[in-house]
Design a protein that fits this description.
Radius of gyration: 25 Å
Largest sheet: 9 strands, mixed
Helix content: 10-25%
Shape: globular
Strand content: 25-35%
Structural class: alpha+beta
Distance between the termini: 52 Å
Number of helices: 14
Amino acid sequence: NYLLGVGRADCTGPVAQVPLMGYANPEQVGGGILTRLYSRAFIVADRDGSRRVVFVSADIGMMSQRVRLEVLKRLKSKYGDLYRQDNVILSGTHTHSGPGGYFQYTLFWITSKGLIRPSLNSIVNGIVKSIDIAHENMKRGRLFINRGTVENSQINRSPFSYLANPASERSRYLSNTDKEMVILKMVDEDGQDLGLISWFAVHPVSMNNTNHLVNSDNVGYASYLFEQDKNEGMLPGEGSFVAAFASSNLGDVSPNTRGPTCANTGESCDNPQSSCPVGGATMCMAKGPGNDMFESTRIIGQNIYSKARELYEKASQEITGPLSSAHQWVNMSDVSVELNASHTVKTCKPALGHSFAAGTIDGVGAFNFTQGSVEGDPFWDQIRDQLLGEPSNETKACHKPKPILFSTGEMTWPHPWHPDIVDVQIAAIGSLAIVAVPGEFTTMSGRRLREAVRSEFDSHGTPRMNVVIAGLCNVYTHYITTYEEYQVQRYEAASTIYGPHTLSAYIQLYRGLARAIAMNTTQDLPRGPEPPFFNVSNLTLLPSLSAERAPADKTFGDVLQEVRQQYREGEVAEVTFVGGNPRNSAENVTEHNFLTVERYTNTSGTWQVVENDASWDTRFYWAKGTLNRSNVTIEWHIPPGTEPGIYRIRYFGHYKKRLSIFRTITVPFQGSSSAFEIT
């Protein structure tokens, strides 16, 4: 028996003008919202509350060191030594459709337009708030674990790299992806449902890099379905049951199950270069199972949800036993790894290879630096000059056979471009070991790591541990391939920033943590060098928020294009309003709904909210016009089973109003469509 707490809080942030984090495509900036992003927190404590483990899964691209340091600082001032770097795991789901700009290392500023305070703040606030809610709702309860196979939801997107692994190793596995889902079920002592964590390896890239609506992708849709199901009668994002679909060793795993085809000719481009006869690599894109990215997201999300639901209902293996956690900070650019008695190798200063710029079949080509677009901007000029700096011979030799594109470990202006100090961490809850990794392990890398950790537990008297990998935790260090995959230098290998022996180094480090947990010596682990906290308050190339205007004879929230009078289910109700920049709302309100769909109740003569902007059936588009004007279009994709009746769509926004030369204020406003009928 444990004390258990679950919590969920909004962490969406600014949904307009901020580049979305994941595809590193500078063109892909936010322009509205499909669904809200949430941080989901789970606390497990022993009966007297003295030992605790916190697992957080947030709907963001990846955890950043900056977010983690700020969260830990806030937890310390609030709870003292209760929640610390060793017993708090922060994991990102890896959606590629969330706002960026929450990093302190320079590389990530390039495509995120710097460090964007409102984006960083909403993530930090959301994570802390979700932990607060979990902390306040601790109650006695029980944990159950279950595992099963998810079909038709992933492919390996670098199969030619995978084939470089030894045949003897590959023959032990049925597939070139990990199809196993592990779920942790939480109930209170009366058997009432509290929450679920699922770990499953798949990239949340069903929404591709042409998308401009903030959303949590396939795994977020799975969370939504599970929570809607358990929190009956509640709006999305409300209700006490929390379901997290967390990331795992997804490095080479794509949800785009129809595989890579040439966008121009339709033929397959499943070749070692992922290249097309006409148009080369930029034409080679993988497609999901649906007719468009929205449908693909739902199909993959539904698959993941259905399996989790089945495993949850059938879970009977109880987790019991002590709680412990082990953590170290490690300088990953300088780890000596003993491969065997006579052979020691080392990791390298971080660097990215040429194939990094090629992207993947899920999103081609990053860093399209074009001449002319950076004219006269000293920040970019200095970066460009930095880029021309040649990697040292030492770094070149260390990373072989990787041809280095960016020697980020040797680039320090205005701050280091990549982290050296990285978190390694394991939390054990009875027979469950959560291995928190700082990046994207490939399928085979994850298998080797799990096996090493399990065997370490085995040989120190803790047999039959359930070892799961939680991905994208604590600090982002790109990819971790096997030594053999590294030799092939596809995207994942080019992005294995600490060199060919990165995986071996991690295996050595995580073995040490597992040993300390098994032998109860975690207090003797050296803490390691603390990560830096750079003094960057707000450095951004985002356009500033200036005073806005409505067209003549109109005011903010007025309807520009009205709904039709009548719709059927399956159709799309659409209305366009005079809008305000959604960033105003993010910067002034902690939690804000941009829209509601409301149904008229005859009996009471009132309007009832039936959908909000966290619903996957609504889409909110913001379009910037000329003369400081903008429009907002709201779509409601009327789902099957919608009750006939009278409905309306409402819009809630904020605009900037000029009071004087020096002063603008933010003014809330709202608008509503006419009433329409669903027949």
